[in-house]
Amino acid sequence: MLLLFVEGIYIQSTKSLESETLDSKVAFVNLTGLPDLAISTEATYVRHRSVSDLFSIYKDDGTLREYFPSTYVYTYSHLMNKKSLDEK
Amino acid sequence: MKNRLKKFGVNVYIMEYAINSLLRQKYKSLFITIVLTALIFLLASIFFITNSIKYELQSTVDSLPEIIVQKIKAGRHYDIDTNDIDNILEISGVSSAVARVWGYYYFENAGVNFTIVGIDEFEQQYKNTLARIAETLDFSNTSSMVLGAGVKKSMNKSYYKEYFNFIKPDGTLKRVYISGVFHGDTELESNDMIVMSKSSAREIFDMDESKATDIVVKVANVDEIQTVASKIKFLYPESRIITKNDLKISYQNIFDYKSGVFLALFVVSLFTFFIIIYDKASGLSSEEKREIGILKAIGWRVDDVLKEKFYEGFIISLFAYLLGIVLALAFVYIFKAPLLQNIFTGYSQLKTSFELPFVLDIQTLALIFFLTIPIYIAATIIPSWRSSTLEADEVIK
To answer: Assuming Cys at both sites, which of B104, B249, B298, B356 could form a disulfide with B52, CB separation 3.0 to 4.6 Å?
Structure first.
């Protein structure tokens, strides 16, 4: 219990997002205007998944099946070509 | 201490007996604790990582553009005409519309993908921002760029220290000088990014002045975004329009329970749990049965026996839970999730340091708590209840 408490305080104080860091992150996103994180860059539709859609993979080849392992983790952006506008 | 525990309705003597009983079956208790801890550790680590990624995304979502207009042709993303800007600007409510140039560059030597973003380099506003978020700025060269830390590293490996030669689609080279590197703070966003002037980006992509990758529309009034978006859609039916709200929704469902890793994780955890429960529920060993029989014979009531078993299960599972959470916190935030981070980075050669922001999410902790502890306690109590309701002499036989 004590260990959890001490570790919690340590992580809270060193690893949480500080306002200065947050500011520079916001400034960077503002500069580029591009969504999503650079954690996985193996395919365009994984790197910028929010501006891609389920069909983005067809850009490479219409018969291609997904073979990038990170699509195993991240789902597609659920923003279909027209649907997201019509639904509202 | 004893009195205090008594106040909470804890029978200290039964508790003592439960602890002694656990210590008597040292190896069995140890084994169950290890398995439970490992299970909770795995679940907690994955939840911590996904939570932090979501938190990181959501903390910057508000600075994204209100509307992004892409052109779709033959089911593919195409370059959009910059003339379209004039028509979009005429829509009432639009405060600005800017053509963007951005795309990907595959650096074959290292096998990595870069994201190249073109900005209007000489605008003062951009210069100020760059000065704040990047180091060693030197825009004296006519074509210069600011790199993400990961890009810089992979360029350095190929001995590009001062400049980089981009291979244009026509086969000729375009030399761009490195003028700065983004701070480590923004690594999760900027690791694979190259920011350069729009004209240099156009040259590398072989994009005409009259074309752009997409158009970013700013709308002053938040309530008007949807109307403006539908008007643009009406104007250009072939376009794909992404509003900020869409991006928020996209961020929210980045980790879907339908996606493979979570399904696999839950199947594995359920299966492990199933084994533990099966082992427990398939009946107690004759020794344990005899113990319950003797306890009953010396005067314990059924609820005393159940209480003792409850304490046993609770001590083991709570200990495993706390240990699992402590290990998972250290694993994810201090050691940066070795091995497990590969699930999230996939095949990408350009790896971030995976320094995730810590966020305390009580919901996740509660979810893991209720997924594991009550089920384990139930699995200990139910079989003992079955044998403790039998007559004492019948059990001892």
So the answer is: B356
